[in-house]
UniProtKB/TrEMBL annotation:
<feature type="transmembrane region" description="Helical">
    <location>
        <begin position="122"/>
        <end position="144"/>
    </location>
</feature>
<feature type="transmembrane region" description="Helical">
    <location>
        <begin position="246"/>
        <end position="268"/>
    </location>
</feature>
<keyword id="KW-1003">Cell membrane</keyword>
<dbReference type="InterPro" id="IPR035906">
    <property type="entry name" value="MetI-like_sf"/>
</dbReference>
<feature type="transmembrane region" description="Helical">
    <location>
        <begin position="202"/>
        <end position="226"/>
    </location>
</feature>
<dbReference type="Pfam" id="PF00528">
    <property type="entry name" value="BPD_transp_1"/>
</dbReference>
<dbReference type="InterPro" id="IPR000515">
    <property type="entry name" value="MetI-like"/>
</dbReference>
<keyword id="KW-0813">Transport</keyword>
<keyword id="KW-0472">Membrane</keyword>
<protein>
    <submittedName>
        <fullName>Riboflavin transport system permease protein RibX</fullName>
    </submittedName>
</protein>
<keyword id="KW-1133">Transmembrane helix</keyword>
<feature type="domain" description="ABC transmembrane type-1">
    <location>
        <begin position="101"/>
        <end position="272"/>
    </location>
</feature>
<dbReference type="GO" id="GO:0055085">
    <property type="term" value="P:transmembrane transport"/>
</dbReference>
<keyword id="KW-0812">Transmembrane</keyword>
<dbReference type="GO" id="GO:0005886">
    <property type="term" value="C:plasma membrane"/>
</dbReference>
<feature type="transmembrane region" description="Helical">
    <location>
        <begin position="92"/>
        <end position="110"/>
    </location>
</feature>
<feature type="transmembrane region" description="Helical">
    <location>
        <begin position="32"/>
        <end position="52"/>
    </location>
</feature>
Amino acid sequence: MMLVVLALLVWIAGWWINTRLAEGPQAGTRAVQLLVPVIFGVTILIVWELVVRGLQVPLVILPPPSMIAERFGSSMPILWADFSQTFLKGALSGYIIGCGAAFLMAIAVDRYEFLRLGLLPVGNFVAALPIVGTAPILVMWFGFDWQSKAAVVVVMVFFPVLVNTVAGLRETTAMQRDLMETYAASYWQSFFKLRLPAAMPFIFNGLKISTTLALIGAIVAEFFGSPTVGMGFRISTSVGQLALDMVWAEIVVAALAGSLFYGCVAMIEKTVTFWHPSQRG
């Protein structure tokens, strides 16, 4: 029980430090904004370690972070191979294809009204389909390698990007469009100089949402068939072997990959839409 009491003290100390930092005179600085989540995360890991060891939680239920870190370090070649198969081949390729196709389709939808009236309702229907129902079908169509996982990702990211892009292209006001017409601007001149820049915040919202959907789709698709490599395959087989430390190591890889992927898209957004009010300050 001493470890549990120590965990409680660590939690109180972390809470107190974060409260002082968040409410102190330096609360708005960049250093504090970075330090608070770091302290919070470290506190959770320490409390997790102490509680699991203090209560002697079985390893098949919840291993301590130290054991997960040990497995992570000793299984780097396996984790890298799984990461390459799932993220680089399946998720990233599907993300690029799906987002690119959605952007081109959004331009067609914006140009032709019948596509907006006919395609978007169908898109809402397809987006509501559960991945556990569509993934096995796509695996049977495209095989057990990464191509079927990329196909699942394409289906998952296509409509969020399509809907956001279409909404963004309609963001300009009637006065702005009339002004371009008084300049005798063609459709494409108006598109590239007015409507596309105005749509960028919407487009990047869809791209950021799709970063997490892409990784989730690729991992879940591997549960329904894959070669003997991949994050979803490893999680599924490790659960069957009660190797929960390996499962958590794969979860850590997925969390790091998803966070870095989202961060890269957010950095690109900040560079492209520097003029938007949401990026100021």
